[in-house]
């Protein structure tokens, strides 16, 4: 499934920023903020853009604040509150003053980017991610944003499957749940 060319990559970036820069639980274990937020933010952005430049500590902290706000959007959708998710995205769009620009880079054809009015790294990514999430929320795929349903995991995902039935952030969480269910059934016999 493709939300809108370049925008599907931006939505994946939003997922990665939330999962790498917000505390909580991951695959049954506590997940704390990385000590080097700049390196973690760089690694997160490089999942989609391998040549992305190194980010500093301050930029990492700013992106972690953006990620916390993006997490609230995923949580609202997972709770069935699309109205709240849309309100949160609209607030981000308004605050960043997301503005469209056609850009061409890395051998790609012209495509739409959204930048924030302050042109900081965090401002531009906040504007881009908010726009990507707005495109998802404004489509029939608004329910494709989610939070992992495995016990002790709160990582987020975007369901790009054909049938839209994803419930877990990763195969590891899916396997944990299936193994626990199998063991519970085996104990019951």
UniProtKB/TrEMBL annotation:
Protein name: CGNR zinc finger domain-containing protein
Alphabetical list of InterPro entries matching this protein: ABATE, ABATE_dom_sf, Znf_CGNR
Pfam families: ABATE (PF07336), zf-CGNR (PF11706)
Domain Zinc finger CGNR span(s) in chain numbering: 144-185
Source organism of this protein record: Nonomuraea terrae
């Amino acid at each position: 499934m493709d939300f809108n060319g370049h925008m599907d990559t931006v939505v994946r970036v939003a997922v990665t920023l939330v999962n790498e820069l917000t505390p909580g639980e991951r695959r049954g274990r506590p997940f704390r903020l990385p000590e080097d937020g700049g390196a973690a933010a760089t690694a997160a952005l490089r999942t989609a853009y391998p040549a992305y430049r190194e980010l500093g500590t301050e930029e990492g902290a700013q992106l972690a604040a953006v990620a916390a706000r993006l997490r609230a959007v995923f949580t609202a959708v997972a709770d069935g509150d699309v109205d709240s998710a849309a309100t949160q995205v609209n607030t981000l769009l308004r605050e960043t003053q997301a503005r469209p620009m056609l850009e061409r880079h890395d051998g790609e054809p012209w495509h739409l980017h959204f930048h924030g009015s302050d042109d900081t790294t965090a401002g531009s990514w906040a504007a881009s991610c908010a726009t990507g999430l707005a495109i998802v929320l404004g489509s029939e795929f608004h329910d494709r944003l989610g939070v992992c349903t495995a016990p002790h995991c709160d990582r987020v995902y975007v369901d790009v499957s054909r049938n839209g039935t994803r419930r877990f952030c990763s195969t590891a969480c899916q396997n944990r749940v299936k193994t626990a269910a199998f063991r519970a059934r085996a104990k019951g016999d």
